[in-house]
Structures are given as C-alpha cells and as structure tokens.
Amino acid sequence: MKVEKSVLLEKKRPLLKRLLSILTDSYEYVSILACDTVGKGYSISKSGIVVQEQQLFTDKGYVVKVYDGESYGEYSFNNITENNIDEIKEAVSESLMPWKDSLREELSVKKYKKMTEEKISFEKSTEYEKDPSEMGDEAIIDALSAIRQNTLDKESKLIDAAVSFSYQKYHKLFLSDNKELEQNVMWSTAALSARSAKGQEVKSAFSTASGIKGAEVIDEIREKIDEVIEKVNLLLISEPMIQGEYDCICAPDVTGMIVHEAFGHGVEMDMFVKDRALAKQYIGEYVASPLVTMHDGASAYTQTATYFFDDEGTLAHDTVIIEKGILKQGICDAQAGMALGFEPTGNGRRQSTERKAYTRMTNTYFEEGTDKVEDMIASIEYGFLLENASSGMEDPKNWGIQCLVDCAREIKDGKFTGRVFSPIVLTGYVPDLLKSITMMSDAKELSGSGMCGKGYKEWVKVSDGGPYIKARIRLG
Amino acid sequence: MIDIILKAIKNNSIEKYLIEEKVTKSAELFFVKKELDMRRMKNVAHYTVTVFRDFEENDIKYRGSSIVNIVPEMDEDMIEKAISEAYYAAQFVKNKYYELIKGEKKEMKVMPSSFENYTLNEACNAFVEALYKEDVRKESFINSAEFFVNKNVVRIINSEGIDVSYTRYNANGEFVVQCIEPQDVELYQNFEYTDLDTEALSRQVREALDTVCARANAKTAPKKGEYTVILSGKNLSQLFEYYAARTSVGYIYAGISDLKPGDNVQREDASGEKVNVTLKSTIPYSLEGIEMKDVEIVQEGIVKNIYGNARISYYLGVEPTGMPDAVSVDNGTVTFEEMKKEPYLYVVNFSDFSVNPLTGFFGGEIRLGYLFDGENVTPVTGGSISGNFIELQNNLVFSKERYKDSKYEGPFAVRIKNVQVAGE
Fold it and tell me: Which of A354, A356, A476 sits opposite B38 (nearest CB)?
C-alpha cells in the first residue's frame, strides 16, 4: 500500500503558493518547504507502558528560504492563515533579511549565486505492508507486551526486557518558481533490549528491525528474542579488553559504524566549505583497500533514509564515494554546492522545518565482497569478532576514529575460544583501518534504527551497514 | 489555543489532563570564518497534551495515558480528533494507578535575564561581537560558529489545578577554532548562557585559541598502560551524571540501580574523597508543573535522596521532584597545582567523552592531553582512556578550584588513579 497524501498540506497549498508569489515580488529566489509529520512511539518495560507522539518526529510547519541577490535567509513558522500572511512577509523583509547590515564591521556576508533549478513537478509515495494506525494501539501494545513477556520467560536471569516500536509518516511539499514536489514516506523501527546484572554493573544487549515499512517490523523483532538473550548472556561472562592492535572481523553493524562515523561524516561537503575535512585533499587518492566501494544516497538503498527529494528540493541520488579504494567525491547540500561549484547530491537535510539544512548522510554503506564469513573467521590466527556497535564520534578534520563496541569474541587459530571482552573502544587513523581491509563477505546488511547528529545536535534518520570486513584495528 | 484544546478535552469527557504550551522565538546566525553564511529566525508554538484514563481490571486500579502534539495549524476538528485518538489509546496503557501533581494558579515567573533589554537579533549580535573580537591572532583562528538566541514562554496546566508559567531566554551555540602550524588541527566548543554574559564567551574563545595551538604541537599518543588521569571542566559533568542516573527513581524502579537513601555509593573503605552531589534545575517548573528545588542526592558518599517524576516516585513512595538538569558537586581538598605534582596524564580535550551509567564504563579518544612523567610535560594526542567508574570512584581527588557552566558546577579538576590508556 502507498502512503497517502496529507490533508493538511492540501488545505494549505493555495496559501503557501500565495506566500511564495508575494515574496517572489521582492526576492530573486524563494522556496517553501512544508511538512506534515506524525511520529508515534510505543515502549514497554518494567517501568511501564508509554504511548506518545514523539516531538523529535512530529513536525507540522514551514520554512521559507529567500535570496536577496547575494545571500540567503530562512524564516520558520508553524501557522499560516489569510490573516497572518502579511506578518510573515513583514518578518522576512523587515527583520530577517536586513539583519546582515547590523553586524560588526570586519564581518562580511558570504556571497552566493541564485539557486538554479530545472522545472519539475511530481508526487511520490513509499509503500508499506501494515499501516500502524490501522493495526491500532491495542493490537500494537498487545504484540509488544507478548514479545517482552516471551523474552522474560525464556531467560530467568534477566532483570528487565524492553521493547519499542516507532514510526514516522511524513508528508513534504517543496514549492519554488520551478518546483512543485510532494512526497509521502513512512519508516518504522522496532527494538528489543534485555538487561542482566553483574554485581553493580548492568549489562544490556539489543537488536533492532527497521525500514521503509510499517508495523511489519514488529514481526521482524519478534524473531530476534533468542539473539538478544544470547548477546546479554555473553556480556555477563565478558572480561575487560586487553589493549592492543588486532586482526578483527567486524559484523555488519560495526562496519556500518565505521562507514558512517569514521568516514562518512568526513565527506559531508559543508565541512569542505569550512576547511574542516581532510577528505577534501584526498579526492582521487587511495584512502581504502581496493576491495572497498562506498555509497551514500536516499535512492542508493531502501532503508529509513530513503526519500524522493531532500529538504532543499534536490532529487535523491546514489553517490559512489569510494570506488575500489579511491575517493571519488563527497556528498553535498545545495548551499555548500554553490560555495564549491559542485552539483548537490540530494543530501540537504533538516531535523525539522525549525532547523537549518546541512549536508547529511542518508543510507551509507560498503558494497559486499566475495568472501564467506566462515572463511574470514578461519583466517584469523589471533583476533576478535566485533559485534554490537554502540556509539561513535566523527573527526573529519583528522580522521581519528572513536567508536564503541559492546562485544568482542576471541578467535584463536580460526576458532572462537568462548572468551568474550566488553566494552571495546576502537581508535586509530581512518585510512589505516580502511587500507588494512583484506576480506569482505558476500552479503551486506543495513540498519536504520539510529539517529545521526551533526556534532551534538541536528538529529536525522539515517541507515548504515555493509558486509563483514576483516581489518587490523587498535582496540582498548 | 489552550481554550480550543480544553474544549476538545471536555467534548471527549476527559477528566484528567496535562497541557504544556511552549511559544518560541529565535534568532540564529551561522558563520564560516568571518563571513555570514546564513541567517534564520523562528516563530513557533507547540502544545503537548497528555490525557489520562482511569480503569480497573481484577480490582486493580490503573491510570493509562497517551501524549499528543498540537500546533496552531490544526483546526478544531483536527485537534478534537487527535485528542480523541490519544484518549482511546490511553485505555490500553496498563500502568498502575498514581497521583497527578496538584497545585494552583501562580503568577508568571520571568527568569531574570539581561536579554530582556534587547531584541533577539541585538542579543545575537552581541554574542557575535564577543566571539569575533577575540579572533585577532595569527597562529589560531575561528573556523566557524553558530549562534542561537531563544525566548521561550512556557505555560503548564493540568486537571488538578496546576497553572504555572515562565519566560526564559537563553543563548547557545558552538564554534570551532583552528591552528594550522605545525600541523592543521581544530577544536570544537559549545556554549550556553541564560544571561547576556558576553565576557564569559570571550574568555572561552581565548582559552580555546590557546588550547588548539597546544594540540597543534602534540604529535604522539601516550604509551599504552595504566595512568593517573586528570579530567577537568565540561568532561566532569558527564562523570558526575553517573550519580544522577543511579539515584533517579527511573533507574531504581527498573532495577538498574538498587540505591536507596542511606546506601554508600562509594566503598566504605574508599581511599579518595567522599562525593557530595546536588541536582539543580535551569527551569523553574518541571514538565508536570512541579516547582523545581535543589535535590541533594549524595552527601559524603552516602545517598541522601532519590528523585524523579510523579508516576515512578508514587510507585516508590517518595516525593516527586521533577527532573533537574544540572549537577553541582562540592569542591575538594587540594589545589590543581598540587594535584599535578605526581606523574599524570591530564586530558584536556576528547573527541567525545562518555560515561555509561548502566555499566560504569567511561572512555574517550584523546584529542589533547598533557603527560607528566615526573620530569617533563609533553603534549599528547591520539589513543584513548577507559575505565570503570563503579570501581575507580573510590579513589578520586577533587580540586579546590571550581568550574561552572550551564549544566555543571563543581571542582575544576578530578584526579582518577588506575585508568587504562590504549596508546602507542
């Protein structure tokens, strides 16, 4: 089934077109992004049941972008009526745009060209199997409660199991002189976590399911109960990591974290504009093993960051960032593209209509290779299988790695020894790690359960992943 | 708008409710080097409505709830439908009965702020001025900066008589400083002020410009091993939030923490300093309308109070306090200089320092540190520190000097023994 159109946006479309027309009388370029988004979440744990529309995923608002002949300004609001349309125009023309003239003397305004756009109009929707709103609150809560109870029944050592389901159904309308684009998209995620105590420490393991889907992800997470219990039981017998540099096999979620945190943030080209990314100097150079080909794009893969156009009206792309180890190009929003003389790649994304657009990743991954996972493990004389990526932090300027992983299973002479280490900090220099990749498995997996921030803010939905990879990594 | 929401609540025969109204205006500037890249303004309103539904099953009383977000763009029919659907959902939320916060109508609190005398654009310009007036050095400079000045007007009402409101201004943002020689490095900084404290921002910029030069001269990572580590400033708020998490009713009710008043958080034979932690709030009322007061959670290493929201506090039989968002810690017994007499690794800047309150694990990649081997101090970069705070909290030393930002007030520096370092 296709995600249906927004009633609210249909109702407001004529007024928004009028605002566009009024502002176009005064400014060379004007665009309006309108959103009608509902994000609803359900969670069940020992602490109780929570059902809520999640603020981070709920956005019914508008952002106007105008160009005054040399620079851009934006005005965000969430109410437009016949009566206040002149107030909006006044805020833009009398307060926002003249503001640049009141800055201290040695500061200047970065000069941009007028946005160029080809004439295009469409309305597109993603598809899903089960509509969460049709499934209904009662059935969703019952299904999640059963998953939680089943988990607790299977392992008496657990102090709690928590299960959650979230979905966002969003409708976006982009209007400018040349564009009238509309998209209706739904993504869903489900997560199951289990907790056990080891003295004062509480060990927690989780698994997720996600996609451009509906409530069918609840069925998928139900299949992962045994996996989550196994993971948390492994953590209970874990030992502190012994520091050193090791041969490692990274599971797809850890590959995804390396792809996203260690490398992906460094090719966001708004960082090139600021001279904050080392990658800018390495276009055309080997930055990874020839086995590595890396993609990013809203149309590169169907996962939670799939859409038809970005928040600046640029159509979705599939960008090849690394091809056989050589850095080909970065990803780009429209404004950074203008600054660099580079075509935008459909990566201009906002947390909501209340926030600025930045260059952001979408679905980011390494292509699969040709190796079998069992052969990769058999090839390790001494090392670890790294699983359960927990968090990471970017360092585009210096390509330093900081990634946290929950579980390292020891491998000796190609076999698991049964020893497990946790937690683990991955550090080092990104190209060293990527160049050390010698094997890649023949299938990839992407997960879209997480959110991505720019620094410590600006949260957007992303997915990442890849195949199992074999690399040399410094662990602590 | 609140009248329309109340009408929808009445039309749905809903007896128990909580409404938070938040009207936000903001002025935002984005710079690349010394050029204005983007200017933005915002004028929005949001209404978060929680509806409660009481029911009984097998003689057990339940109070279900569901939360819905309303914006002015929704017409009366849309609002009534949204609230009706939330009330329908609440009957399936089988949470044990608890009491809502009771109260009365109070005068609006205007949190004292010098922002009041300026427009948001003028206040934003003042912070821009404070930052860029320091950007006069040859060796290090401002790479980029973002400024957000906000005015929030918040009103909270519920079915039990609560009707409180406040106005709060704040300025927040981030900037990156860069040094190109002898190697090209940068440092990220963020800031938040509830007053037009432009001198504090200028001071932070000067310190950052000094620090980034030091990082440019740091070339090697420390050797792997066990170190006495010193942490300071912003990183300490992460460390002490461990105590805030472990004394919250949410963690206790979920079984993650078994602490109760009178328990030792540190071992009785702990050789280091005893911890004293008080939680504070940067807003006058909680989301449930509770008037926020300081909560002393740990005194001399012993839990004094636990804290939290209405529902879980009711289940645990303690007075609800709301969720304070800032940590205050008593200072220590030695000066920062005395702390540095023994060999140490003083980590000034991490890529991201984090503490997991579930496991006690803490760690981070070193962006800049100073290594003292007993004779020489060497700047270092790279590698990471890691340890478990559950164990290492028993051997802490706090500085006499204090540090304060919007979310942490306490010792400027903390010395921790036996920290693992993954390095060269």
Answer: A356
Cross-chain residue pair B365–A401, CB shorter than 8 Å? yes
Instruction: Indicate the residue of A46, A73, A395 with minimum beta-carbon distance to B255.
Output: A46
Helix ranges (DSSP H) in A162-259:
216-222, 225-236, 252-257
Could you tell me if A195 lies within 8 Å of chain B, comparing CB atoms?
Answer: yes
ipTM: 0.95
Listed in sequence order, the DSSP H helices in A243-295 are: 252-257, 270-273
Chain A CB within 8 Å of residue B39 CB: yes
Q: Count CB neighbours of A326 within 10 A.
A: 16
Helix (H) or strand (E) holding A60: strand A59-67
| Domain residue ranges in chain B | 2-215, 225-422
Strand partners, B149: B27, B171
Residues of B in contact with A110 (CB under 8 A): 32, 35-37
Instruction: For residue B121, give the nearest of A99, A425, A475 by CB distance.
Output: A99
Give the predicted TM-score (pTM) of the model: 0.95
CATH class of domain segment(s) B2-215: alpha beta
Residues shown for chain A:
476
- Percent of chain B predicted with pLDDT > 90: 87
Is the minimum CB–CB distance between A83 and chain B shorter than 8 Å? no
User: CA-to-CA distance for A279 and A224, rounded, in angstroms?
Assistant: 38
Instruction: Quick: pLDDT tens for B78-102.
Output: 999 999 999 999 999 999 999 999 9
Tell me the shortest Cα–Cα distance from A153 to chain B, in angstroms: 17
Q: Residue B165 CA to chain centroid, in angstroms?
A: 22
What pLDDT is recorded for position A319? 98
What chain A holds in terms of domains, given with CATH numbers, is 7-37+56-123 (no CATH), 125-171+185-236 (3.30.2290.10), 244-475 (no CATH)
Handedness of CA A235, A241, A247, A251 (dihedral sign): positive
pLDDT along chain B (424 residues), means of 10: 97 97 98 97 98 96 97 95 97 97 89 87 96 96 98 97 95 96 92 91 96 92 94 92 96 94 90 94 95 97 97 97 96 93 94 90 91 94 90 94 92 95 84
pLDDT digit string (tens) for B301-335? 999 999 999 999 999 999 999 999 999 999 998 99
**Residue B328 C-alpha, separation from nearest chain A C-alpha, in angstroms:** 23
Neighboring chain B residues of A31 at a CB cutoff of 8 Å: none
Residue B354, chain A, CB below 8 Å: the answer is yes
Cross-chain residue pair A276–B143, CB shorter than 8 Å: yes
B332: helix, coil or strand? coil
A236-271, pLDDT tens digit by residue? 999 999 888 999 999 999 999 999 988 999 999 999
**CA distance linking residue A392 with residue A158, whole number of Å:** 27
